[in-house]
Structures are given as structure tokens and as C-alpha cells.
Amino acid sequence: YGKNTIKFLRLHKEGKKHFAKEVEVCTHLRLTSAQEYLDGNNSLVIPTDTIKNIVFVLAKKNGIRCIEQFAIDICKHFMTTFCQVVYVKTYVQEAPWQRLHENGVPHCHSFISVPDGIRFCEAEQCRNGPLIVFAGIKDLKLMKTTQSGFEGFYKNEHTTLPERKDRVLCGELFCKWSYGECKDFDFDCIWNKVRECILEAFAGPPDCGVYSPSYQKTVNCIQMCVLSKVPQIEVIEVVLNNTYYNVVDMKNLGLTNDKEVLVPVEAPYGSCACTLGRKKFLEA
């Protein structure tokens, strides 16, 4: 049991310069006994309102240097403070506020919401067990207008999809990775590096791009790029939900449409998912 969608804005001030972190927290606990379920005995139950207040207090006392560290702080507090807690799991996601710049100068206290992916993390721990940390990015929308195709796929009497050598590749990406046992990582640096790898593998070099023969291959290229450049990550899951674009037929309007006007197909949509890990971790 636990408390979901604990939302708040944490401000930190250094003179005229302000720092802002707006987060949403979900914290769930498992207790030594199920007596509250079986017998209606609530003597061990930490009220969810108390859970919410503890999250606020930890934000006030410790601040939020990064969301991963904040999730770790929450897990450690419940595990060390309450002997009846045998498992704690905390999810934290961060609103995409970025400091506003005017003529290249960073503003001291104004921010802009930039919807270029939501950062999130999870931390979980069993009593007498290691504290495990996950992190990720979701709702990251990506598109390239060429250097993508889909050919040579299996066909039968139900196949109507034509082969395409050149198409728009567009999708919404979800990516989650595991650090394994918690260590003293620079979580901000790693998260930014993973995001750079995602964009690099998806888009390719800025002057020519990189060809994608399928959404599946693009998902694999993203994972391989991350694992090759970020050694702290042990396992990475990527889900790419596809958005298709169809070329509008303008013959009846007396126009030739050479893939200049397209309409998105909102539903149904395809989805590709894969989890990839290092051999040494999977064998363990």
C-alpha cells in the first residue's frame, strides 16, 4: 500500500538565483504482517497521509539534488525508521522545467516547460537487501523525415501494407535502465549521456543521418549505443510506439503530392519493445 501522485515544487534559493524542481512521487510499502488485511488490525500501518508528509519533510530537509538521490533518501528513511517495513519502492518523475534564457543570458528566477521527455526514476529495497535504482525517460517524441524504410517483411493473404524504401519514422519513446545495486553515481551526468545516445542512434550524423530498416532495428541501435557508452548501466528497456504518416492523395485537386503533405494515423499504432542487458549481468 502507499501514496500516489504526491506533487510539489521544491525551490532552492542562492541569493537572487533560484533553482526549481517540480516532482511527482509515489511511495509504496510492504509490512512484516498482513494483519491489517486479514484481521483489520491497523497497529502497524503507517497512514498514507504520514507517507505524504514524510516526503515533504525530506524534500525540505535534504533538498532535491537529483530525483534519483531523492528516491534513495525516501527508501532509506522508511527502511531505517520503521521496523515493520520490509520493502519500500519509490517512483519519482520530474516536470520538464528549464531555466529561461534571454539573449543567451540565463534568467535568475524564470523557467520554461520544455516537453522533450520526462525524466523518472525508481528506487526499491528489501530489508537486509541491496538498494536498487532504475532511471529513465518517457514521452520523448522523435521524428525523422527520411532515411527510414520497411521492406522484405513476411506476407500472406492478409497483407495489404506496401513496401517502402523511404518513409517518415516517428514515434514516442519510453526508456528505462537499471544501475543494479546503488553506488555513488553522478545520476545527472548519466541521464544526460543516455539521452544523447538515444538521439544519436535515432538520428545519425547531422549531415547525412543513418538509415533505419525497421523500428525494431532502431530500438536495438539505441540500446547498443547506450550500453557501449554508459558502463554504469546493466540492463536497458526501450519501447517505441509508432506514429504512421500517410501521403495525402491530391490527384482530384489537380496536384502532385511528392510526400509534402501527410496525415498522421493516430490509431491503431504499432509498438516495438526490447530489453537488452550485459551478458555478465544476465548470467548472474
TrEMBL record:
It comes from the Eukaryota. InterPro entries: Uricase (IPR002042). O2 binds at residues 48, 242. Pathway: Purine metabolism; urate degradation; (S)-allantoin from urate: step 1/3. GO terms for cellular component: peroxisome. It is an enzyme of class 1 (oxidoreductase). It is found in: Peroxisome. Its EC number is 1.7.3.3. The keyword Cytoplasm does not apply. Keywords: Oxidoreductase, Peroxisome, Purine metabolism. 5-hydroxyisourate binds at residues 48-49, 150, 167, 216, 242. Urate binds at residues 48-49, 150, 167, 216, 242. One of its GO terms (biological process) is urate catabolic process. Belongs to the uricase family. Catalyzes the oxidation of uric acid to 5-hydroxyisourate, which is further processed to form (S)-allantoin. This is Uricase. It comes from Turnix velox.
